[in-house]
Amino acid sequence: MKIALDYDDTFTLDRASWRKAVKALQMNPSTSVTFVTARMKRGDNEDIHQDANVMGIDIVFCNKKPKQECFKADVWIDDNPLAIPTPDAMRACLS
Predict the structure, then answer these.
(1) Which residues of the chain carry a pLDDT beneath 50?
(2) 0.85 cut: is pTM over it?
């Protein structure tokens, strides 16, 4: 199972609890957790790199694109669900 975990205003709301949750999820070898962020890859990203290194997880920078265009996840954990779907996926949901 591939889990996409948003960073800003999701993970950062309670780093300690999310670290415990990620550690528990990583106990299952078929589960992976990845930070998927709308952030630009260029810029000050020291905080997200540091947290990812501590937990041993990858980061996907979406550069302000819909997250679904940048990463294929089985489960999305995000404070802003509207940042996830592509425009086509949103249109399909509305029709």
Answers:
(1) none
(2) yes
